[in-house]
Amino acid sequence: MLRSMYSGVSGMKGFQTKLDVIGNNIANVNTIGFKKSTINFQDLLSQNMSGSGVNPMQVGLGVQTSAVNVIHTPGSAMTTGVGTDLAIMGDGFFVVQDPNATGAAGRYLTRAGNFVVDAQGDLVTTQGYSVLSSTGNPIKIDPALYDSFNITRDGQVWVTPKGGGAETKLTDGLIGISNPPNPTGLRKFGGSLYEMTAAAGGTTNPSTAAAATSMISAGMLEMSNVDLTEEFTEMIVAQRGFQANSRTITTSDEILQEVVNLKR
């Protein structure tokens, strides 16, 4: 069989994967805190045809996916006016924890700051995960003790006691932020959450927004960083690439047919 046929098959598979990545980006164009992905390719193998001559004589045997990277550029900020909606201005992630887990287990990172205060007064995600403070503890705003609260740009929760009184800082109420050195190394867990990995080079132990040289904006949410213009352009490239590789297979098939027809 012709090598070009197998090269064309590998190219079609590669561009199909590229379309999968593009489709996922477009599907999440309005997902809060979503980060788009890009795909890179590399040549598969090269077959040595001859060792004679000055330069090596090699024929490539196709393409393969080398990496699918998550691009952690910031998304646009959307004003909501809801006090528990938080957006990170700068680097870092909110640290949340599965309420059924203990210690560092069940901790995840997220840029989606659409939090709520539940009936027990815990600041949680929409999935019910606890938002952790800079000391690694769940943030609790007990409605039986406080009339209202607000969150400052450094992530500190300030509360107003019931019955009036001066506004004070909530004990252990500083929003925790984790800033891994290589956020591209994080593994997507689903639900706009990321798992820490060795490739990311960090830990799930939260710090502060100041330590991450970031600020927290209350009443705002970070939207997806997907650019539809870019995605549709890449979709055209992927479609044409897929068609070109399919034409390679068709041409190879026609050549094989001619070879078969030599013997009549």
Question: Care to describe what's here?
Answer:
This protein has helices at 3-27, 228-261, and strands at 37-43, 46-50, 57-60, 63-70, 77-79, 86-89, 93-97, 107-110, 116-117, 123-124, 130-131, 146-151, 156-161, 168-174, 177-178, 187-190, 193-195, 215-218, 220-222. The chain is of the alpha+beta class. It folds into two domains: 3-73 and 226-261, no CATH class; 77-222, no CATH class. The strands form eight sheets. Strands 7, 8, 11 and 15 form a four-stranded antiparallel beta sheet that branches. A three-stranded antiparallel beta sheet has the order 12-13-14, with no helix packed on it. It has a two-stranded antiparallel ribbon with strand order 1-4. Helix 1 (3-27) runs antiparallel to helix 2. The longest helix has 34 residues, at 228-261. The protein is elongated and about 100 Å long.
Task: Briefly say what this structure is.
With 264 residues, the protein is α+β, with helices and mostly antiparallel strands.
The helix/strand series, from N terminus to C terminus, equals: HEEEEEEEEEEEEEEEEEEEH
Q: Averaged pLDDT, please?
A: 92
Structural category:
alpha+beta
Shape: elongated
Distance between the terminal alpha carbons, to the nearest Å?
20 Å
- Number of domain units: 2
| Total count of strands | 19
Determine the strand fraction and express it as a percent band: 25-35%
Give the number of helices.
2
What is the CA-atom radius of gyration, in angstroms?
Answer: 26 Å
Low-confidence stretches at least 5 residues in length (pLDDT < 50)? none
Major sheet description: 4 strands, antiparallel
Helix proportion range: 10-25%
